[in-house]
Specification:
This protein is 44% helix and 18% strand. It is α/β, with parallel strands linked by helices and 385 residues long. The longest helix has 23 residues, at 198-220. Bound molecules: pyridoxal-5'-phosphate. Residues 86, 88, 115, 191, 232-238, 296-297, 341, 343-344, 371-372 line the site of pyridoxal-5'-phosphate.
Length: 385
Amino acid sequence: MGEPQPRGRFGEYGGRYAPESLVEACREVDEAFREAWADPGFRGALARLLAVHAGRPTPLTPAWRLSGELGVQLYLKREDLTHTGSHKINNVLGQALLATRMGRRRLIAETGAGQHGVATATAAALLGLEATVFMGERDIERQALNVFRMRMLGAEVVPVTTGSRTLKDATSEAMRHWVGATGDSHYCLGSVVGPDPYPWMVREFQRVIGDEARGQCAAELRTGVPDHVVACVGGGSNAAGTFAGFADTSARFVGVEAEGGAGAARGRLGVLHGCRSLFLQDDDGQITEAHSIAAGLDYPGVGPEHAHLRDLGRARYVTVTDDEAVRAAVRLARTEGIVPALESAHALAWIIRAVAGGELPAGSTVLMTLSGRGDKDISTLKELV
Ligand SMILES: *Cc1c(COP(=O)(O)O)cnc(C)c1O
């Protein structure tokens, strides 16, 4: 999983479908990122921030009791233990440092549940930048705690009142706002979606998950490499970062989507937010709403690299229902003492089903990325558990 070839393309997906002024801004981000990523000074500064502020490396935890019950060896890559509680911080610290290097003084971001918004507000505070976060009005109502966290951190939260007033509209609005602010602002996109170079750049910033896990598996597992690598997929950044660390191995990749947000499993070719990829659409080609109990999986499409990995057969994409995810979250809490984010619980739910159905044979080794902690989901869960 290297640089997209030809430039900006993953097979027939990817590209930079944006108004001329944003094409130019993306070109600048692309150039600055290439330079920074080749600069040991930049990499060193980012590694230090990830260590001293975000708490990396995160542990690889053997899920002892659950493994015993399932008859497979399950290992959890613990992104829930990072500062702010999900993998989003890895990407955001990278982009915030890049923005500083480019002389930008403000970060613009979109957010759905608020996890990416909180991570962006955090990185902005840390590096002395301003932050403007676009958030759908409906999500603002549903996620009061994260809205408060962003404001506490000094970010401006802008309510988006267009369309369905959720993540898709917040992303459109953030991009529109960037058009008029490219000179002093960097658009800090939260997943492996959007125009080139974002899908590639965000995956590189999330690669730290896979690279760390690779070394930890080499030390912990008898086989060195797990048989299966499993992660949940919203836009696809925690999965892409995890897969990247095992690209040169024979590990089988599984991306787990929400039943109501299955861009890779059920989407059709389209263009949204500057990118050609797979999106949920109605018969007229209109992009439809995604629905999931896990707000982070509520994106109606998937990043272009996942669409390509699917076509190549290198990764497979499966879906899990809200119910299965809730049951998996409870099971992990009660066997391992870990309350996962509902997003991450989707990955576990598939593993549990695949063991029952014989797709994961007894004795298999399975690495799963636990993308975040469940605290943010308590108000949802307490109605159901
Ligand atoms: C945002 C989020 C996701 C989904 O985003 P990806 O880009 O697919 O990784 C998954 N888990 C958590 C905890 C999140 O906050």
